[in-house]
Amino acid sequence: MHITSAANPRLKALATLRRRRGREQTGQTLVEGYDELGLALSAGVRPETLFLCAELMADPARQEDVVEAAAAAGAEVITLSRAAFEKVAYREGADGFLAVVPAVFASPEDLRLPDQPLLLIAEGVEKPGNLGAMLRTSDAAGVDAFVAADPVTDWGNPNVVRASKGTVFSVPVAAAPTTATLQWLSARGVRLVATTPDTDTVHTDVDLTGPVAIAVGTEKTGLTDQVLDAADVRVRIPMSGKVNSLNVGTSAAIVLYEAIRQRGTGR
């Protein structure tokens, strides 16, 4: 099938997947980009539909591998005119790849953890860019799972998928209210390490081996008292400047990689 008009019903339906309600109702979301789709496919995602625009592709011949992999996974492949594709693309610099895939909706109870898991907990983080950055760090660091507590943004948000470069599909993710998340950690004997500037304990002075969950909060208010009170230990990242907080993605990366160093699991 080849579509030239953005008014086509198949394309109009894509707009609903940019809204959370639409994703929850259909169980679908969007992945845009050759690299992002390639990573999703390698993680076992089975696209339902793949929309292509050869005019926007960097190298159609070389990029045929993702098209073939998507088709082999059962995706319907539809080509679009440049005008039609640019109407449905949700990011600047569209590269001609847009897929409809199953959205990620999981609770912590769905996760399968090793005996000594390293987890990341993000409470109330709203910006898709921050969630995406933490997903990329989690993928690189080999984090066993990433849980969004009291999430404002769902894992299926196309901007989270984009910001994560598709790692939302390679990192085990889940979402739950803060109370349920804390109960889940406690039931599994996972130590909770809360990041906050309001402590004298530096993150490098704490044992981050064994079952550990590192919790980060919003840049504006940090972690809630509920998480801070439930924490086994509170840690801070040393800072000598005038600000008292770092970008949440940066904070998560610093503490996660200290855990990787202590565990000796880095490559």
Could you explain how this protein is built, in words?
The protein is α/β, with parallel strands linked by helices and 267 residues long. It has ten helices and eleven strands. The strands form two sheets. The protein has a six-stranded parallel sheet, with helices on both faces. Strand 3 (49-52), helix 4 and strand 4 (76-80) form a beta-alpha-beta unit. Helix 6 (128-141) runs parallel beside helix 10. The chain starts with a strand and ends with a helix.
Task: Give a quick summary of the entry.
The chain is an alpha/beta fold and 267 residues long. Helices cover 33% and strands 19% of the residues. The strands form two sheets. Strands 8-7-6-10-9-11 form a six-stranded parallel sheet, with helices on both faces. Strands 1-4-3-5-2 form a five-stranded mixed sheet.
Mean pLDDT: 93
Content-based structural category: alpha/beta
Query: What are the secondary-structure elements, in order, as H or E?
Result: EHHEHEHEHEEHEHEHEEHEH
Q: What general form does the structure show?
A: elongated
Helix fraction, binned, reads: 25-40%
User: Order of strands side by side in the largest beta sheet?
Assistant: 8-7-6-10-9-11
Number of E-state strands: 11
Quaternary organization: single chain
Tell me the Rg in angstroms. 20 Å
Strand content: 15-25%
Weakly predicted, low-confidence segments: none
Largest sheet properties: 6 strands, parallel
* Spatial separation of the terminal alpha carbons: 46 Å
Distinct helical segment count: 10
